[in-house]
Amino acid sequence: HLTNQSKNAALRALDQKVHFFDWRRFLMLPDNSGGHAAFQDTFVSQFHKFYPDPFVLPKSTWDYIVQFWYLDLSQTDSIMQECYSVFGPEPRLPSCMLRSYLLALKLKVTSITVWCRMLKETPLYAILSGFSFGDTPGVGTFYDFFSRIWQHDSNNLSPKDRFPKIKKTPKGKKKGDKTPCDSSSMASKLLPLLEHWQLKPQNPFFLIFRLYQQQFLDQSIHRGLVNPRHLALAGDGTPVRTAAQQRKKRICHCKEKGRSSCDCKRHYSQPDCNWGWDSHRECYFFGYHLYMYVASDSFSDLPVFPLLERASRHDMLSFLHSFFTMKAYLPEFQIEKLLLDSAHDAYAVYEYCRREHITPFIDLNPGHTGHFTYKDDFTIDDDGVPVCKLGLRMHKDGYEAAKHRAKYRCPKSNRKRGCFCEHPCSPAKYGRTVHIFTDDNPRLFNIPPRDSKAWETEYDRRTSVERSNKREKEDYKLEDGRHRSTKMWYCRLYGIMMLQHLDAWEMPSAEAFQESLLGLTA
Q: Which of 112, 354, 389, 434 has its C-alpha lying 20 to 30 A from 71's C-alpha?
């Protein structure tokens, strides 16, 4: 019952004790000494064999042949070498398995079973993956590969046996409204905790992220598509529907005892998913809440970091968790601008951005208290003191540091008698109160100001994260995956993100590649 890492450590310790025995003769770890050049040589030799007239292939086929010809995945073999046992049959090369899975996503094949059949029937798919036609992996080999890049014994982050949730996530009150939540209070409580409690990159998807970072994100940085030293980051959440209904079954014996309904634990097939409110479609959905960060200053809307949360989570909670998780995985990235929608409008977020020297571009939430429009029945004196409609200067009654505003009361009122004005301007017994925002309010007094052309131009780039989510959900059919585990949803999500970076890389034209390929095969 030892893991592969434990087996390898035990064999290394035994190798140090038994000097006269050479264990290396029996090692069956994946070996790709030829690297990416070996894949290209194999492809050229087999491509000319099965396609003596390559011009019969359509233009769309040549486009992804060019992409996968230049896609170097040789680092996958060295990164995943510790995930394989030293004994047993020789495994498939991890680079070929990953390349084949990316090719399936590129062709919008949602079933691994269907893809394995296509590998056996179509020579081009087999040799472009790096396999020999007639010797392609089966369904079990693919799922074994997914288990190796998932660093956890369980396929989900939560246990399958848990108590059922009684209440459903509340929906928005008006058309287009998101789930109601006191995001300002949530941010003020959780952000200081997450800021001081530094998260560590020890999630089960760490190896998947490492494959994505070293072979795709770093390549986009090297090509000048993403600038990690001066990064403008756009973040937003989007629903990911994984099933039409929640699947669960009883594990207790209450029904046998005559109790039709009980609050005992249930066995869930998707324990990391629950019900959430989709404000765009105005309906409930079962699945995840995907929070995505995108480099808004990249011309191709390139994704940077994702996180799958429960569907019931608000954008603010997903933002706080995913932001500090991203900082743990990408500590070298220096964020200069943060582009968010009105769901993230909270004083704690502005104050954090001020401390970290980040320029926030956040739209104001009209539903929050303490708005920025003053009433028309009083004026502001030269020294900033409000004057009521009777011409009396109001008395200062404290300062709210959390909201950066000073509080003023009616001059003809006190805490004992209340308001004793002959012509009260408020029906409240407490008397009329006015809040004046100070100049150090980071929410209202932005640099650049919200009414400036510079702020509008920069904030317009926030839609880059929406375009990126559209690419994942509609172009690459993210929600069409027939999966029941968080492991497979992360594999599918990161595979699509890899293809988004691959699509942004500059490649030679299909005509130029055909000429060079014919020269190689001549």
A: 112
C-alpha 14/C-alpha 19 separation (Å) is: 9
Extract the tokens encoding 349: 């977020």
With beta carbons less than 8 A apart as the criterion, state whether 502 and 216 touch. yes
**Distance, CA of 436 to CA of 512 (rounded, Å):** 66
pLDDT digit string, tens, across residues 87-110? 777 889 999 999 999 999 999 999
- Length of the chain, please? 522
Alpha-carbon distances, residue 54 vs 61, 62, 67, 454, 512 (angstroms): 11, 9, 17, 52, 14
Q: Which two tokens stand for residue 332?
A: 């070298």
Name the residue among 514, 477, 521, 505 with its Cα closest to residue 71: 505
CA dist 207 → 75, 76, 77, 148, 225 (Å) = 12, 10, 12, 9, 23
Distance CA 233, CA 253 (A): 51
Q: Which of 201, 233, 213 is nearest to 325 (CA)?
A: 201
Encoded tokens for 152 = 């956890």
Q: How many angstroms separate the CA atoms of 380 and 374, rounded?
A: 10
**Residue 501 in this model has a pLDDT that exceeds 90:** yes
Per the CB < 8 A criterion, the answer to whether 330 and 295 are in contact is no
What is the rounded distance in angstroms from the CA atom of residue 252 to the CA atom of residue 266? Answer: 8
Yes or no: say if 311 and 287 are a contact pair by the CB < 8 Å rule: yes
Pairing of strands 283-295, 231-243: antiparallel
Residue 93, token pair as written in the block: 């090369």
The answer to whether residues 307 and 291 touch, using CB atoms and an 8 Å cutoff, is yes
Burial class (CB in 10 A: 0-12, 13-18, 19+), 466: middle
Could you tell me the two tokens for 266? 């249930």
Cα–Cα distance between 296 and 337 in angstroms, integer? Answer: 9
Q: Kindly give the interhelix angle for 59-70 and 510-521, rounded to the nearest 10 degrees.
A: 70
* pTM tops 0.85, yes or no: no
CA 257 to chain centre: 45
List, for residues 458-498, the tens digit of each pLDDT value.
999 999 999 999 999 999 999 999 899 999 999 999 999 99
**Mean pLDDT of the region 289-296:** 96
